[in-house]
Design brief:
The protein is mainly alpha-helical. The chain folds into 2 domains: 13-104, Orthogonal Bundle (DNA polymerase, domain 1), CATH 1.10.150; 120-317, Orthogonal Bundle (hpI Integrase, Chain A), CATH 1.10.443. The chain contains 15 helices and 5 strands.
Amino acid sequence: MKPGTPALRSTRLLDQVRERVRYRHYSLSTEKAYLYWVRFFIRWHGRAGGMRHPRDMGAPEVEAFLTMLATERTVSASTHNQALSALLFLYREVLSIDLPWLDGVSRPAQKRRIPSVLTKEEVAALFQFLNSDMRLLAQLLYGTGMRLMEGLRLRIKDVDFDRHVIIVREAKGNKDRVVMLPRALAPALRQQLLHARHVWEEDRQAQRGGVQTPHALEQKYPRAGSTWGWFWLFPSPTFSIDPHTGSERRHHLFEERLQRAIKRAVAQAGICKPVSVHTLRHSFATHLLQSGTDIRTVQELLGHSDVSTTMIYTHVLKVAAGRTVSPLDTMGFGA
């Protein structure tokens, strides 16, 4: 193990990967993805009957696995990169093997695609076919540019009605940022606050365990998860098992609820574009730029590290504007 890092306690490889991922404070989705690819890598090379430890494999095995993903499974560039990142993490962080060939493994270039963006009329039509609780969440994501999990993980303490701002904690890249609280949503959010308060009071009276708190806060302040400020703005109606501790807690709303609701609403609204929850974030950025908002401001609201990432929405505007006159239109042909 690298100097300054704790020794791995488990002897099973997958448990070691899990321990190291959690030590690095990676997200649960990253943990699941890395475990999947490490398991797949080992099983694929053991398909002929001879299971080998990754420590006994090297560049030829990693490159053969990545080649299989690209040629036989024809995975996307992002999936290919995720698999490579998982294997690099395994060798460098878990096995403490920093071999020269690791730096030579090339990553496939990801093509920059122009994202699908809804018009304001299409956004309004989409909202009409969502029920009240899913509509509020969708409106909040569109009105702030937050990602789905950023919205679902909001705590009571991070919604500031007086300053009309929302603090997004530990977003992508483990960064905090501040976004606007849409004034049009303030009444509905206050009602959501009352609903969350009712759920919190019920849990407290039933002496239920508090909600999950980040990092070691629970060890330092054992009752923090039971306080009102740390409670979810969008609490789940049911309890679930915390994958980190194994204890039963109230989680935030399950992310697939909105994903399924958006899919149904898109069909009902007759929208033919490819639409996901993330399309609301794309639409937020595009509509801000369309209204004349400075691109640096949009970059800050979205939480992008580099303005070049935000620049993709200027390409969307070029497509959406349609102001360039076709030479055919100058020839006098009628429709």
